[in-house]
Write a structure and sequence with these properties.
Layout lengths: L5 H10 L15 H17 L11 H10 L9 H6 L6 H10 L10 H35 L12 E7 L7 E13 L3 E6 L2 E6 L3 E3 L5 H10 L10 H9 L7 H11 L10 H4 L1
Antiparallel strand pairs: 1-2, 1-5, 2-3, 3-4
GO molecular function, one term: nucleic acid binding
Protein name: Zinc finger protein
Pfam family, one: rve_3
Length: 273
């Protein structure tokens, strides 16, 4: 709620920021932040496995390590994009000592340093932007190969994929709820017990009600069958068996197959004819 508070709205107004809210339970709509959070959590889990309560001591070293590593999408480290120079981390200093590549600092005036820094930043950002667009195009191509767009209409009833009440990590389909409006291309506003909430199409599934009344009427219209009713095929079988010799076990089994009681005999013409 801190992102939609009155204080945050006032800050965005003063700074000229257009605030956009993402749909809940759909991390793909804010993929850059969620991907970083997942990476940070994975690193913290591995470093503080023996002392989980001391996880806060590893945040600053992890952030430093993350910022000095070149990213696959931009081919530049975040530190280099921000400050216009390569960071001298522990591994960089150790490599200089081993390879004896220590260079004497070049003497420049403040004016020359600022001009060179601005030029490097402009060139670096231009290259990084081009590489990022190419990476996004490749990722979109791979994702669209198996992706299918879901379409719903206003007034349609749908199920919503939401966390369970006992565990937020477990998801289940809840509903049915009615769609009241379309927001953008893939977002829909759902009426959930008098409150309207926005969900992405990937969290929705069409609801099909079971027609219980029709199935009940079908069962009531079906005529009752007697235990003595014999299918037409049974007459054919018995007639084909005329003249055959039956033993005692066969005679005992035939009344059971036809639905007759054990008191009725095979020779009874009312049963077999």
């Amino acid at each position: 709620m801190q992102f939609i508070s009155e204080c945050m709205k006032e800050v965005c107004r003063l700074l000229g920021i257009k605030q956009k809210n993402t749909t809940p339970y759909h991390p793909m709509c804010n993929g850059l932040v969620e991907r970083f959070n997942a990476t940070l959590k994975t690193c913290l889990r591995r470093l503080c496995s023996e002392q989980p309560r001391q996880w806060h001591r590893y945040i600053n070293p992890l952030l430093f390590a993350y910022r000095e590593v070149p990213q696959e999408s931009t081919h530049f480290a975040p530190f280099e994009l921000l400050y216009g120079r390569t960071i001298r981390g522990p591994m960089h200093i150790l490599r200089e000592l081993w390879m004896k590549e220590i260079e004497e600092p070049e003497v420049k005036s403040s004016y020359e340093y600022v001009l060179n820094l601005r030029e490097r930043l402009d060139d670096t950002l231009k290259i990084a932007r081009d590489e990022l667009e190419n990476a996004q195009g490749r990722q979109k191509h791979y994702y669209d190969r198996t992706a299918k767009r879901r379409k719903f209409s206003v007034g349609e009833k749908v199920l919503v994929l939401l966390p369970t009440d006992s565990n937020k990590l477990l998801m289940q389909w809840k509903g049915a709820f009615e769609i009241v409006a379309t927001v953008g291309i893939d977002d829909y506003r759902i009426n959930m017990g008098g409150k309207e909430k926005t969900f992405h199409a990937n969290l929705l599934k069409g609801y099909i009600a079971r027609d219980q009344d029709a199935s009940q009427a079908t069962r009531e219209e079906r005529p009752p069958t007697s235990s003595l009713d014999i299918p037409a095929a049974s007459f054919t079988v018995i007639e084909d068996l005329e003249g055959e010799h039956f033993n005692d076990s066969d005679c005992e089994a035939l009344p059971k197959l036809s639905g007759c009681s054990s008191e009725e005999t095979v020779n009874d013409p009312q049963v077999w004819r």
